[in-house]
Amino acid sequence: MLLLIPGPVTTRPEVRQAMTRDIAPWDNDFRHFFTRLRSRVLKLAGGVEGQHATLPLQGCGHFIAEAALRTFLPPGGRILIPATGAYADRMIRLAREAGRVPVPLPMGLTDATDPQAVARALEADPTLTHVAMVYSETGSGVIHDVQAVGAEVRKAGRRMIIDAVSAFGAFPLDLAAQPEVDAAVFTTNKCLEALPGVAFAVARIDRLLDCAGNAGSWSLDLSNVYDHALRSGWGSFRFTPPAQILAALDVALDYHDAEGQTARLARYTANMRIFYDGVRDLGLTPWLPASRQGPVIVNVHAPADPAWNLQAFVDALKPRGVLISNFYNTPSPTFRVGCIGAITPDDMAGAVHAMDQALREIGIKNREAVQT
Amino acid sequence: MLLLIPGPVTTRPEVRQAMTRDIAPWDNDFRHFFTRLRSRVLKLAGGVEGQHATLPLQGCGHFIAEAALRTFLPPGGRILIPATGAYADRMIRLAREAGRVPVPLPMGLTDATDPQAVARALEADPTLTHVAMVYSETGSGVIHDVQAVGAEVRKAGRRMIIDAVSAFGAFPLDLAAQPEVDAAVFTTNKCLEALPGVAFAVARIDRLLDCAGNAGSWSLDLSNVYDHALRSGWGSFRFTPPAQILAALDVALDYHDAEGQTARLARYTANMRIFYDGVRDLGLTPWLPASRQGPVIVNVHAPADPAWNLQAFVDALKPRGVLISNFYNTPSPTFRVGCIGAITPDDMAGAVHAMDQALREIGIKNREAVQT
Fold first, then answer.
1. Prediction pTM value
2. Are A62 and A188 part of one and the same domain?
3. In sequence order, what are the residues at sequence separation of 6 or more whose Cβ sits closer than 8 angstroms to the Cβ of residue A314?
4. Mind listing the pLDDT tens digit for each residue in B30-71?
5. Which of A265, B5, B13, B174 is least buried, going by the fewest C-beta atoms within 10 A?
6. Of chain B residues 55-74, which have a CB less than 8 A from chain A?
7. How many structural domains compose chain A?
């Protein structure tokens, strides 16, 4: 079964197999393992040992995003968030419910974030101490240029939080070259091709120390995570972690090392290209123009045919070995397909073929994009 | 290797094996699985379908405890917490950092919570809307009577939160008979004998509806978890869950069904008795008198011998197949040993034997309790 949902992703059996033993997360053997794992992740983020810390948090991407917002912004702190789509909206909601003040930067949903628009917004409002942005916006499929936006944030003397959840491992991150970044956050289960259950922030140590006391939540306080993981000599988690998920991540990182970030990005890009061109050849219409289409997720317009029913399409694909989401994150009806995970262009060609058959099975004759 | 740390616990290989497949948590098959899993957990908690909801949260016990405190108490809300030990202290810290006002009820660390003391404290302070208490206090090893305390809370017209993290699955919970309880919280990895990674609240639906808007955190808002898991028809998680951990839990619940809660408690009690009597026969001194000793965790006084070194003891036990914690949660030096998990009295007898050998190896001659 191909999981194209797109996350949790399809993983290798060797990665899953790493979860089949009991693990004591307070044991010294685990502490050594965990220290090494933190270093591996730090290196992938382009962080500097002694300047950056790899901070794991039990749970999911939303938890680590809220933790970063709470830790680096005080209550009432104001943060600019380019409105790139569904996942930017989620960050806005996380900030607002946590008592911070998110200020959305309006933009077209199919556009890449304009660094100059960010610069102008920061200049116009000196109370904005931070910018948060989504690197790979799953809501649209657009990849946003965190380096270019970061340069403007740096020039303006502000701070930045990067939501790298569906980017990390495939797209470059060079935190050493981006001192304006307080933290980049991501999880085990997207482009790292491991299983879900642990989230990470790679964060600046000086800022973690400065920001102690901001969080208003012990659970979601990254300064406190830092104290336990690194500063106090404890060298492990504060609270019981899903250690099996970390064991799986370690194996997944071996595969990542073997492939390399650039080759992984190239594979995902090839996956996307085969799929994008393939569904176009089927008569379907991708939601993004090819020039804007990123390699992580492709949204495809729902066909105009009145027989269209997303759940029926999902159900018809499943016996053909392809699993896609039964919901969509775009304003108009689409279906969404992930191109990431332990999958190849051949798998994507197979998925296109399965979609052709599934569309026939559920009686779709008119495959043109639904007019909205 | 026996994990007596005591949590994560030793699990069965069949439980861990359930984690070796990819799972799509938004898929309809998963929704059906998840609905059934929620019902199984609800039944174990003695909840009533339609009155109670089983609410899973990614992460650990501390996260679900904070979520319950945030959801059922408004900011500034006041909650009485019997100071039973290290885990009550943690709940006090979670409440305080979340902007609630925890009011500790002082008591002896080796005492069981006195229901009359709770009643008097509630009578003396009408601003206390809630009581939170730890069912099985890992800090001491004492089991506290949530039914008797709950009866006083009910009489006083107040609300209650039960931290059942290291009790659930072994000790009875009958939420139908305890309408004063807003939520009982616990995790997958203690007496349920599954792997860590997901926490649960079983909570009253009327209270979840009344308390919407309290949490001040989207991540930790149980009213919102309820909306997604049950009310909206979505029938799944809000954010990516560690679905493999839930698959393992489902298998662990099969074993729990086969054994039954009463027999599981009897097995843990037999584990504890063999261990408690065994270490006493070795010349060591358990921290609790036998009359107060619960079956979940036994703390043992550190020997007075100057050669005592907890880490050396832990290291000497490990090649003998026994893993214990290299820290303690009591005010005076102890070592802590869990009696829960997929382990038997024979395993505990083996652990006692291994401890005798380990004490000799690290040169402990005087095994009497250290004077503090």
1. 0.97
2. yes
3. A323, A324, A325, A326, A335, B27, B28
4. 999 999 999 999 999 999 999 999 999 999 999 999 999 999
5. B13
6. 57-63, 66
7. 2
